[in-house]
Design brief:
about 30% strand; six-stranded antiparallel β-sheet; single chain; elongated; about 25% helix; signal; alpha+beta; 5 domains; Jelly Rolls; EGF-like domain-containing protein
């Protein structure tokens, strides 16, 4: 019998090993087929890069995303991305349904997205103000999809790939080995088309072109300053020339939507044009000249000859900041050069008659995986911070700032170039106008400080441009909010002699035309948010093909970029009820322990007790952090729960078998070792559960068959076969169906608690009551059970008789 059992174990382990080898061989075959698939090369395109088989997973956090890197060179007119996704079926169970695969592509940094629907924290920079994220959705059905980007800017482009997010609370809990084992993979390549006919010119010497050579493309390099370029273009032989469209763009060829300047002119009327624009410092600029018929929707190029809006850049200073590295991933600061090793905060003096910019560099690869924080504040007088006291003049309360100046600072943020801060709180860069990053107002105590956070900052040179605007109106200064806010009321100033209500008089103050202030500026980068995740998660790193990014892994119930969003968290009472269901349902094992003891199954009773203890404390530890209680590490409790659960099935099947105590003890020991190995190998695998159960059922049926063939009678009482055993099998069947097929994340606490209860109660009907003498009630102890001397439990087994002891 032992030999048969050992052979069965060896065969089972060999079968598992053969199955793993078969799955690995199948995967290699599919990957080899993908590798041998010829990439379709397009005419006139150059294949830059490709990735054959990228694993794609369901989005749960940035831990589960795959990252793809695409390098794009200069002078590219079309970048064509090709994607093909399909499912690898790694077992012979069921079939694989195509998944909805999402690809987010962005230049210069990883796309900062929230596929799970959480909002970004309030201090985060508006994603709409950053570079566009191209989003492509495909199905993993093996079909090719392409996405084209016209005239892309050169540099490193990054793609995030993941299966579209689904609410985990509605997903089914699937048991390994019972459902199809599917793996989504992605093939991708990048092919680019370059413009070879681009003539190199000097940005500062202008261009002379014959009308017969139009259309034409040119490029030139700008100097390292923010001064405007006055570009002269002269068109010759204009007798048969049509209207001309002139476009300029930095870094890439211009398009209808992406350009610095677009204007049109008629060379027959004026063949010499001077077009002024603000360049990107030390960058290639592309100039496109082409004929056009309808010029109604374009500005006249003569309007760019004399531009009053950029005359203000004459007094423009650019300062380079010092980098202060902290020696950790994505952790650094920038500030004005200083000998202070503790703080890199910058104090920048600004006046109303100048524009001042500071610039710093975010390096590719090593800096883009963190979060960049920019903080700015106006440095006010000491009395400003000590209760907002105000000055009294002629009975009028005046809000004050440093030396009674009223002003506001407008701060712009740009990458690769500077822009001009406007008094309206906007920033202008050539023809583009956008909201300013910060508007700091000295007359409002709530807006002297602002902060923004940029997740995954773009690589490149960043510019922070500040400009000070004075209060040039004559006004009485109204107050509100108990004097904590101060406003300028220009309309009231026109009503001389009007008696202002309350604490105000008709006193007026002359406005200022020149003012100055000190700007406090802090620029820093950290992993996650200050290296933390709102105390509700862990700051981790995701590495993929040498690319590294930081992200927050949130505790149960929390979400969002920094784990601060608890909008989907269950109430504390709900979580407490759930953990009580999962833990207290194990108390039904007391019934199993009681029945095992009164029927003299002491080994089995101990196994049920260990199962109850480990399952109870594992589920108490696996609960949400708000209600969790761990007596030791969770992985230890999890191992004990799975191991003792499978062992309970094993010892119960052996107890039902008709075998001797010595053979049963041997089987129990062998099972303990094999089950420990299987649980360590993969406790979630269906094989780890079914292999011991299948062997146990085989031993059970074989022992019953051999016993019946030998005795021609059933080993147990008739009622066991007609009532107890069928009811026990029915309970186990219902429990297994609940465990394997009915569990979802939402009903897990209920279905799994039912599983605990059913398995605990099934033991009552499965353990045969054959060790006791007579025919007592199977659910009650025998009449003399408690009369057994306690010392007999620990008594030595009787020694076998020897020839020397025989008389």
């Amino acid at each position: 019998m032992r030999v048969y059992f050992l052979l069965l174990c060896v065969y089972s382990v060999a079968s598992v090993s053969d199955k793993e080898s078969e799955l690995e061989s199948k995967r290699r075959t599919v990957l080899e087929q993908l590798t041998k698939t010829r990439t379709v090369l397009l005419d006139g395109y150059h294949l830059v890069t490709r990735q054959i088989a990228t694993d794609v997973h369901m989005f749960r956090s940035y831990r589960t995303v795959s990252v793809i890197f695409y390098p794009i060179m200069r002078d590219v007119t079309d970048a064509r991305f090709t994607f093909q996704s399909e499912e690898l079926h790694l077992n012979n169970i069921g079939s694989c349904e195509p998944q909805d695969v999402v690809i987010n592509i962005k230049r210069a940094s990883y796309p900062a997205v929230n596929p799970d629907g959480y909002d970004f924290p309030k201090d985060f920079l508006d994603p709409a103000s950053r570079d566009k994220i191209h989003t492509i959705e495909i199905y993993s059905d093996g079909k090719n999809r392409t996405h084209s980007i016209k005239n892309p800017r050169p540099g490193n482009w990054y793609a995030l790939v993941y299966i579209k997010w689904e609410d985990p609370r509605t997903q089914k809990v699937e048991q390994q080995g019972l459902v199809a084992d599917c793996n989504t993979i992605l093939y991708t390549d990048l092919q680019v088309k370059r413009e070879d006919e681009i003539e190199l010119i000097d940005c500062y010497n202008g261009l002379t072109i014959d009308s017969a050579d139009i259309p034409a493309n040119f490029k030139c390099m700008s100097l390292d300053n923010a001064s405007p370029i006055s570009f002269n273009i002269t068109v010759t032989n204009t007798s048969n020339s049509s209207n001309i469209l002139f476009r300029v763009q930095a870094l890439s060829l211009p398009t209808e939507d992406e350009h610095l300047i677009t204007c049109a002119f008629d060379p027959k009327l004026n063949n010499i044009q001077t077009i002024t624009f603000i360049p990107n410092p030390i960058s290639w600029h592309y100039i496109q000249v082409e004929p056009i018929q309808n010029t109604s929707k374009y500005a006249d190029c003569e309007s760019y000859y004399y531009r009053t809006d950029i005359e203000e850049t004459d007094n423009h200073t650019v300062l380079d900041l010092m980098r202060d590295d902290k020696g950790r991933f994505f952790t650094f600061e920038y500030g004005l050069p200083t000998t202070d090793v503790q703080d890199a905060t910058s104090l920048i003096n600004i006046t109303s008659n100048e524009i001042k910019s500071v610039r710093f560099k975010v390096n590719q690869f090593i800096d883009i995986g963190g979060n960049l924080a920019i903080e700015a504040s106006l440095l006010m007088s000491l009395k400003y911070y000590m209760g907002y006291r105000r000055e009294m003049k002629k009975g009028a309360l005046l809000g004050f700032t440093q030396e009674n100046q009223f002003y506001r600072a407008v701060i712009c943020l740009d990458i690769g170039h500077t822009s001009i801060p406007l008094e309206t709180g906007h920033c202008k860069y050539n023809d583009k106008v956008k909201p300013a990053l910060f508007v700091l107002n000295s007359t409002d105590s709530e807006s002297i400080y602002e902060k923004t956070i940029i997740p995954y900052p773009d690589s490149g040179t960043w510019y922070l441009t500040s400009r000070l605007f004075c209060d040039e109106v004559v006004c009485p200064c109204r107050t509100s909010h108990n004097g904590t806010k101060y406003y300028v009321d220009a309309e009231a100033a026109d009503k001389e002699g009007e008696n202002l209500s309350g604490e105000f008089t008709n006193y007026t103050r002359e406005g200022e035309t020149n003012c100055n202030a000190t700007l406090v500026l802090s620029i820093s980068s950290t992993s996650c948010l200050n290296g933390r995740c709102s105390n509700h998660g862990n700051c981790l790193l995701n590495t993929f093909g040498g690319l590294v990014m930081s992200f927050c892994s949130c505790s149960a119930g929390y979400g969002g970029w920094d784990c601060s969003d608890d909008s989907r968290m269950d109430s504390r009472m709900y979580m407490l009820i759930a953990v009580l269901l999962l833990t207290l349902s194990n108390l039904l094992f007391f019934v199993s322990i009681y029945v095992a003891i009164i029927r003299l199954y002491y080994t089995e009773a101990m196994m049920y007790a260990f199962t109850m203890v480990f399952s109870t404390f594992y589920h108490a530890c696996d609960a949400p952090a708000q209600v969790a209680y761990c007596i030791t590490r969770g992985n230890i409790l999890q191992f004990g729960d799975f191991y003792c659960g499978i062992m309970s099935f094993w010892v119960t099947l052996l107890a039902m078998s008709v075998i001797g105590d010595k053979l049963r003890s041997s089987f129990q020991l062998i099972g303990a070792i094999v089950i420990a190995l299987l649980t360590t190998w993969n406790m979630h695998s269906f094989v780890a559960f079914m292999l011991p159960v299948a062997v146990g059922v085989f031993v059970l049926l074989l022992s019953w068959f051999l016993d019946y063939r030998k005795t021609r009678s059933m080993s147990y009482h008739r009622s066991y076969y007609t009532r107890h055993l069928p009811f026990g099998i029915a309970l186990v069947s219902v429990g297994l169906i609940c465990y394997a097929f009915l569990q979802t994340e939402q009903n897990y606490k209920i279905i799994h608690s039912i599983w605990h209860a059913i398995i605990a109660l099934s033991v009552v009907f499965l353990l045969p009551d054959v060790k006791r003498e007579g025919s007592p009630n199977p659910f009650l102890p025998s009449s003399n059970y408690c009369k057994l001397p306690f010392r007999r439990i620990f008594s030595r087994s009787p020694a076998p008789a020897t020839p020397g002891n025989q008389s």
